[in-house]
């Protein structure tokens, strides 16, 4: 059931979240969806994880009675999902919350899901949640020195072999002295990175700047990022850095692989497409990226989750050629990505939805410990120490939100 809601009560979606560990979030510029409770869910794994989840959702939609007077993307029945990066190991989840609150422009709504038309919950902003306490960060699977050796190994293979690009990541552990209230972390991420999508699905959280795919009334958008520098805080210097990014052949080459991989994967599922010729520079507080927004029109019957499945893993998180890069990651990266760098987002009963890439992210592994992730694209000309510094810049959003 969907009801029109008063958009003033819903001023701050994240403030409505109750004090529970598994609350759900997909928020950008104050708009999006939050949810809680579980009306239904599927956990799946393996190469067929997207197909299993899509079929489960389709069957659920078929047996549900939906009252949806609002009729916007994200109203009615909605599933939040988060998928493993690799075919194996790692689990994926798609869940329909029992309460979803959404906001889009001037329209706001509350959806309740249950066996009968449950009354909508009383919504009110929760008191300010407590920030994480005494957080200590440490290396996880490999330390910086070891990781640079892994990058050097990849560089020599890229110079000698047929691989053009591989994305390698590393992780950190954050341990707090008391249970982490995820709502505080989400509020901080959303406040500091309003142009990113602040997400949380089953203990995986972050603020991603990269939209793998959005389908909205048949219109498809994908924001591809690849090629990164990090600002120094000195305005003139950073201005020069931004223009150097747009002219750096290493970054342009890396970006081209990523944009091409998305355009090629979308093409069979779209009736028309627009791929801009040159990228623009996307400025975030911690890094700047080369970015390309690709748009298209989805072929009939192709849902946003189908599109995410076709796109994953793009060269922004895998590499080029895709299969060889994914095999090299499994061979040398020395850590489990789990759902890091996998699709995360939501889909409604019509197939419209938004799927980001779970970057600038971390996973709660128990109530006071999180594993943080950051990676970068490696090409034949990459320098391991510079790549290590890039991961440090990419850890900043989550580190700050947890500190
Ligand atoms: C892999 C990550 O980021 C990706 C890699 C980028 C790069 O190598 O330049 C840029 C943006 C993302 O596509 C990450 O943040 O962990």
Q: What does this entry look like structurally?
A:
With 403 residues, this protein is of the alpha+beta class. It has a single domain, classed as Anthranilate synthase. It is built from 8 helices and 22 strands. It has helices at 49-63, 144-160, 182-192, 235-247, 249-266, 304-311, 322-332, 384-402, and strands spanning 2-4, 24-28, 31-36, 40-45, 78-82, 91-96, 99-104, 107-112, 136-139, 165-175, 197-201, 204-208, 211-216, 219-229, 270-274, 280-283, 288-298, 319-320, 343-348, 353-357, 361-366, 369-378. Strands 1, 2, 3, 7, 8, 9, 10, 11, 12, 18, 21 and 22 form a 12-stranded antiparallel beta sheet that branches. The chain is globular and about 60 Å long. The model has no long low-confidence stretch (mean pLDDT 94). The site of the ligand C=C(O[C@@H]1C=C(C(=O)O)C=C[C@H]1O)C(=O)O has 18 residues, from strand 10, strand 14 and strand 22. Its EC number is 5.4.4.2. Pfam families: Chorismate_bind. This is isochorismate synthase. It catalyses: chorismate = isochorismate.
Structure in a nutshell:
Keywords: Isomerase. The protein has 403 residues and is α+β, with helices and mostly antiparallel strands. It is built from 8 helices and 22 strands.
Number of domains: 1
Q: Would you state the CATH class? A: Alpha Beta
Please give the largest β-sheet: 12 strands, antiparallel
Structural class: alpha+beta
Order of helices and strands: EEEEHEEEEEHEHEEEEHHEEEHEHEEEEH
**What is the H level of CATH, i.e. the homologous superfamily?**
Anthranilate synthase
List the ions, cofactors and other small molecules found in this model: the ligand C=C(O[C@@H]1C=C(C(=O)O)C=C[C@H]1O)C(=O)O
Cα-based radius of gyration, to the nearest Å? 20 Å
Mean pLDDT: 94
CATH architecture: 4-Layer Sandwich
CATH topology: Anthranilate synthase
Number of helices: 8
N- and C-termini, Cα separation? 39 Å
Q: What's the β-strand tally?
A: 22
Helix content: 25-40%
């Amino acid at each position: 059931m969907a009801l029109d809601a008063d958009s003033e009560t819903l001023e701050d979606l994240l403030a409505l979240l109750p004090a529970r560990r598994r609350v759900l979030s997909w928020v950008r510029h104050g708009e999006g969806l939050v949810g809680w409770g579980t009306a239904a869910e599927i956990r799946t794994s393996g190469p067929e994880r997207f197909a299993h989840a899509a079929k489960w959702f389709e069957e659920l939609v078929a047996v549900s009675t939906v009252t949806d007077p609002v009729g916007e993307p994200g109203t009615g029945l909605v599933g939040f999902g988060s998928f493993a990066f690799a075919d194996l190991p790692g689990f994926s989840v798609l869940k329909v919350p029992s309460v979803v609150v959404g906001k889009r422009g001037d329209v706001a709504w509350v959806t309740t899901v249950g066996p009968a038309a449950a009354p909508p919950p009383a919504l009110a902003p929760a008191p300010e949640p407590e920030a994480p306490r005494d957080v200590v960060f440490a290396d996880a699977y490999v330390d910086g020195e070891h990781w640079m050796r892994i990058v050097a190994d990849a560089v020599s293979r890229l110079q000698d072999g047929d691989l053009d690009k591989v994305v390698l990541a590393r992780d950190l552990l954050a341990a707090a002295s008391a249970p982490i209230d995820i709502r505080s972390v989400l509020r901080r991420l959303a406040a500091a990175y309003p142009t990113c999508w602040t997400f949380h699905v089953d203990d995986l959280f972050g603020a991603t700047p990269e939209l793998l795919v959005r389908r909205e009334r048949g219109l498809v958008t994908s924001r591809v990022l690849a090629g990164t520098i990090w600002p120094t805080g000195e305005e003139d210097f950073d201005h020069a850095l931004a223009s150097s990014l747009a002219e750096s052949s290493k970054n342009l080459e890396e970006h081209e692989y990523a944009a091409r991989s998305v355009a090629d994967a979308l093409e069979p599922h779209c009736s028309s497409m627009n791929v801009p010729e040159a990228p623009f520079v996307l400025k975030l507080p911690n890094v700047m990226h080369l970015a390309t927004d690709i748009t298209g029109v989805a072929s009939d019957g192709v849902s946003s989750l189908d599109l995410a499945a076709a796109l994953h893993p793009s060269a922004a998180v895998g590499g080029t050629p895709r299969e060889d890069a994914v095999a090299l990651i499994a061979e040398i990266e020395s850590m489990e990505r789990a759902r890091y760098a996998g699709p995360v987002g939501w889909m409604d009963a019509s197939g419209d939805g938004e799927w980001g890439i779970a970057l600038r992210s971390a996973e709660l592994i128990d109530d006071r410990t999180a594993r943080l992730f950051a990676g970068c694209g490696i090409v034949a000309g990459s320098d391991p120490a510079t790549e290590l510094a890039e991961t440090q810049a990419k850890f900043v959003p989550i580190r700050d939100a947890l500190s």
